[in-house]
């Protein structure tokens, strides 16, 4: 059995006419087919009506990274600087989908923008440009991002909480991670627990305190290096185990009906 894993899509312009398309990076598809051990299902940014229709058919969810920022109106933040990419259709889809998944116990893993969505969906707020704040690091994508190892290589260490599950999976107190984001957690949502921090105090990983199933977020991108990084691979393997358990329970429930 291969669990069905929903992958959140962005709305992006493609081609000479900049036609809107619903898209997710191939790296998420490959990681689902790889260490997650699932079947990827791309979820269009179709709005809040998607959640009740698709969630009962899924065994897990990955909320993906993106160049776009979560619209600040969702957390009563100031307007974005001119030129900041937004994706209101994605926001309208992912925020209610996150809340519904947590309520239903469906396993979810939120990555980069996905972790920011997780925080906002549960009542937290965001800093929009961490690099502009006093005493903070520049966590954003390097300007020479066309060089793969510069863009995806390790940028800084993260320190795990003493009781962090991630610390157990890594087998050590600190690990190096990549860093490709402007936004970050400002006020942590009441239901979230910080699992890791960057050297400047930026929250780098979270878990949902009272979740019925796997519900975690990481600010970095483990999907970029799972083939060569054992810790990144471990994150997806454990997420995949949670999704498989959910799929087996879902099959049993359907058989009993």
Question: What features would you highlight for this structure?
Answer:
257 residues, alpha/beta, Rossmann fold, nine-stranded mixed sheet, two-stranded antiparallel sheet, 7 helices, 13 strands, globular
Explain this structure to me?
By secondary structure, the chain is an alpha/beta fold. The protein has a single domain (4-128, 183-256), classed as Class I glutamine amidotransferase (GATase) domain (Rossmann fold, 3-Layer(aba) Sandwich), CATH 3.40.50. The chain is 31% helix and 22% strand. The protein has 7 helices and 13 strands. It has helices spanning 26-36, 50-54, 88-104, 113-121, 148-152, 165-170, 230-256; strands spanning 4-8, 10-14, 19-23, 39-43, 60-63, 108-111, 126-127, 156-160, 174-177, 184-185, 192-197, 203-208, 215-218. It has a 9-stranded mixed sheet with strand order 4-1-5-6-13-12-11-8-9, sandwiched between helices. Strands 2-3 form a two-stranded antiparallel sheet. A hairpin with a 4-residue loop joins strand 2 and strand 3. Helix 1 crosses helix 7 and helix 3 packs across helix 4 (113-121). The longest helix is centred in the last third of the chain and has 27 residues, at 230-256. The chain is globular and about 60 Å long. 42% of the residues are buried. The model is unreliable at 143-147 (pLDDT under 50).
